[in-house]
Amino acid sequence: MGEDFLYFKFKPINKYLIDSLVTPSLYFPKPDLLNDPFDCQLDVRKAFARAAEVVQGKRKNAFQAALKSNDIFENYSKQFQNLGVCSFSLLANSFDEPLLWSHYADAHKGVSLLYRFTEAYLNNPKEILGVDTVKYDPNILTNWLINSPFQPDDSKFVEELTKVFLTAKSDAWQHEKEARIIRTTNGTLNIPHGCLEQICFGLRTPQPDIELVSKLAREYSGCTKFCKIVHADTDFGITAIEL
Questions:
Q1: Distance from CA of residue 207 to its chain's centroid?
Q2: What letter would DSSP give residue 14?
Q3: What is the pLDDT of residues 188-213, one digit of tens each?
Q4: How far is CA 176 from CA 17, 133, 135, in A?
Q5: Helix, strand, or coil here: 142?
Q6: Number of other residues whose CB lies within 10 A of the CB of residue 171
Q7: Separation between Cα atoms, residue 184 and residue 178, nearest integer Å
Q8: Which residues make beta-bridge pairs with 215?
């Protein structure tokens, strides 16, 4: 039996959160709707051009041939139009991540959701295209094209290039420790009852919101663990206490 995957997601409290609790689900936006305009939007043609200036031999010829034709880049772009990408954080320190609370959880008025997925659930080609961690590097796609063990005419070249394209971010984002679940379609995916394992509330989450979210999560999502962020015993530290 494989290990379970533990993923954190920071969110504001709004209609979309409530809907995802009442009908346990995750939302998979299109790649071009992610908050970073470079995310899943790298210019593959420019990366090929940069790589072609460095590599030699058969690889160089293959890259130059691709650059003379728009077909490969047009077809590649079309592959991503309807994909769905759901992002999470892989946190070593549980809920104690002040930047993510401030950026994604409505300045500590929102929540952090902890999901547990089995390997068997994620290993479902009918629903899930792939699961991977994000790699952070300022030139990750170009460097992969230069150093990849796969030649452009290898059957796995496009598959591996796709993985890099969908999980590449600038190193400015590496504090997020991101992981992604990728689907062939975008929109809402219903998830099994009980996948939402724990909810943590922020420093500023209003008490009425805590009570409402807790009630709905227990009743509809099967969530039984709740905690709240409080100030720790350092000037800027935070920690989570059970509710």
A1: 29
A2: S
A3: 999 999 999 999 999 999 999 999 99
A4: 21, 11, 11
A5: helix
A6: 11
A7: 20
A8: none
Contact of 188 with 27, CB cutoff 8 Å: yes
* DSSP percent split of the chain into helix, strand, coil, nearest 5: 35, 25, 40
Q: Please provide residue 164's backbone torsions phi and psi, each rounded to the nearest 5 degrees.
A: -65, -45
Q: 69 CB contacts (<8 Å, ≥6 apart)?
A: none
Q: What is the dihedral of CA 234, 238, 239, 241, to 10 degrees?
A: 110
d(CA 123, CA 129): 9
Paired tokens of 46: 């420019």
Burial class for 241, CB neighbours closer than 10 Å (0-12, 13-18, 19+): exposed
CA geometry: angle 120, 123, 126, nearest 5 deg: 120
Average of per-residue pLDDT values in the chain:
89
Long-range CB pairs of 99-102, under 8 A, 24+ apart, other chains included: 99/175, 100/8, 100/10, 100/176, 101/10, 101/202, 101/203, 101/229, 101/238
Residue type (1 letter), 97: E
In this structure, what are the phi and psi dihedrals at residue 229, rounded to the nearest 5 degrees?
Answer: -80, 135
Q: Count each helix (H run) and each strand (E run) in the chain, helices first.
A: 9, 12
138-177 pLDDT, tens per residue?
A: 899 999 999 988 887 787 887 788 888 888 888 888 888 8
Mean pLDDT, residues 92-118:
89
Model confidence, pTM: 0.87
Nearest by Cα to 87 from 28, 32, 17, 175: 28
CA distance 48 to 54: 10
